[in-house]
Write a structure and sequence with these properties.
Blueprint lengths: L3 H11 L18 E5 L2 E4 L4 E4 L2 H4 L8 H11 L10 H13 L5 E5 L2 H16 L3 E5 L28 H4 L2 E4 L3 H10 L3 E7 L3 H4 L1 E2 L4 H12 L2 E5 L11 H6 L5 E5 L9 E5 L1 H4 L25 H14 L3 H23 L4 E4 L4 E6 L9 H5 L3 H14 L1 E2 L5 E3 L6 H20 L5
Parallel strand pairs: 3-14, 5-6, 5-7, 7-9, 9-10
Antiparallel strand pairs: 1-2, 2-3, 4-11, 10-11, 12-13, 13-15
Helix pairs in contact: 3-12, 4-12, 7-9, 13-16, 15-16
Length: 431
């Protein structure tokens, strides 16, 4: 009989830690999902879970969205991939250009991490400066160039293998406009600014009011290339991402997850004069194109077909409104649980997110390190308890919703959440 445990034993023989992503690791073993539909999924043992992970926030349309599945299936009868130009990539780019304020031109990539890598290369090429300023705790993928500062409060990369020479090119700033200004004025080698548009970890550490507009103004004043990481916020916060909600247009935007219809891939979009550096017909300084970018599976037809089907649903805003409403219901319900148990904790979040903070009834004035530092006993107890009850959060103490969530599913999850709180309190994990 196939079980989660038996699969984990096999996996450990052929994969480091038995996983393909460090956050999928779980002791004593992870769950292995067999199928998923809407806001639910089932593991290989037949156990059902209400899904608040949703493909690392990529499945705002719900798991196995019928329109996306049909589009991919139809494309599969033609060709999954040939490495050539195709009409679907044009239509996909047209959708992004139509919906995103910053999208004069679009270039597709293989993942969100690749999107941030390319955006930074463009920022350096356009500005002529090697250093990048990023905000403490914001996440821009796992590559060397922007890993320093990803762990809140640590001015070092959270990994071995990142050369000091590379890390020294990254300047980490707190989410304070005055501090950002000072760092820019002190270091003339900074040419690019990177910001997770939601604030750190898809809004678990919200940005101060007016921060995006303020850093746009600073970038203009100091002549820096401003890049918004909208890998999670893009098409989730609104059809035009966070930038459309705040009416702040960056020079370059990085996209993935929802932008691909929840399929593997990514994109960047931005100002024409910057994006033209990718154009092979416009050589500069002996390079054609001036900025090199390749990628075997960029805009693969299977992904493009699914993404176009998703764009048609995402463009109306109805998907986002439903997901937002379900997240609000979840946050309100969790806060009711906290209040009934007289717990010093709070559920909060923007758009279709829900974040939990244990240690007070407000996160106001707290740093990213203070918000994101949670005891391992609480993290593991909450994670294991929810999974045992049939609820899967995204990471640590955060989750997202989709348009496939319903009030009944939210209320069922809240009952399970309250039971887990009771058990953690009885075990002394929460005091």
């Amino acid at each position: 009989m196939i079980t989660n445990q038996s699969l984990a034993q096999r996996a450990k023989q052929v994969m480091p830690g038995g996983v393909s992503h460090e956050l999928r690791y779980r002791a004593p073993y992870p769950i292995y999902i067999d199928r998923a539909l809407g806001a639910e999924k089932w593991d290989v043992e037949g156990k059902r879970y209400i899904d608040f992970k949703l493909g690392a926030a990529s499945q705002i349309l719900g798991n196995s969205c019928p329109e996306v599945m049909q589009a991919v299936a139809e494309q599969l009868t033609k060709t999954p991939y040939t490495g050539d130009c195709h009409a679907l990539e044009i239509e996909w780019a047209e959708w992004i250009s139509k919906l995103f304020p910053s999208a004069d031109l679009v270039r597709f990539t293989g993942s969100g991490t690749e999107s941030t890598m390319l955006a930074l290369r463009l920022g350096r090429a356009y500005s002529g400066k090697d250093k990048v300023l990023r905000i403490d705790g914001h996440f821009h993928g796992w590559h060397d160039m922007l890993l320093k500062g990803a762990k809140p409060g640590a001015n070092t990369p959270p990994s071995l293998g990142v050369p000091t020479a590379i890390a020294d090119l990254t300047v980490v700033a707190p989410p304070e406009l005055g501090a950002v200004r000072t760092l820019l004025e002190q270091d003339a080698a900074i040419g690019t600014i990177f910001v997770e548009a939601s604030g750190a970890n898809y809004g678990s550490v919200p940005l101060p009011n007016g921060f995006l507009q303020g850093i746009r103004d600073l970038a203009d004043e100091q002549e820096k290339v401003l890049i918004f990481d909208e890998v999670i916020t893009g098409f989730r916060w609104s059809p035009g991402g966070r930038q459309a909600l705040d009416d702040v247009t960056p020079d370059i935007t990085t996209l993935a997850k929802v932008a691909t219809g929840g399929l593997p891939g990514g994109a960047i979009c931005g100002r024409r004069d910057i994006m033209d550096l990718l154009d092979p017909s416009k050589p500069r300084d002996g390079f054609a194109p001036p900025v090199s970018h390749k990628g075997t599976f960029n805009a693969a037809p299977l992904v493009a077909a699914g993404a176009i089907a998703a764009m048609k649903l995402l463009s109306t805003g109805d998907v986002q409104r439903q997901a937002d409403a379900m997240a609000a219901r979840l946050r309100d319900g969790i806060n009711t649980c906290f209040a009934h148990r007289s717990m010093a904790a709070v559920a909060y979040g923007d758009s279709s997110t829900c974040h939990l903070y244990f240690g007070g009834t407000s996160i106001e004035g707290l740093s990213a390190a203070e918000i994101r530092t949670v005891s391992p006993a609480l993290v593991n107890g909450l994670r294991h308890g929810l999974l045992a009850g049939g609820v899967d959060f995204m990471s640590f103490t955060s989750c997202v919703t989709s348009c496939a969530h319903t009030p009944d599913l939210i209320d069922e999850a809240l009952d399970i959440f309250d039971d887990v709180l009771g058990k953690l309190t009885a075990d002394g994990v929460i005091t």
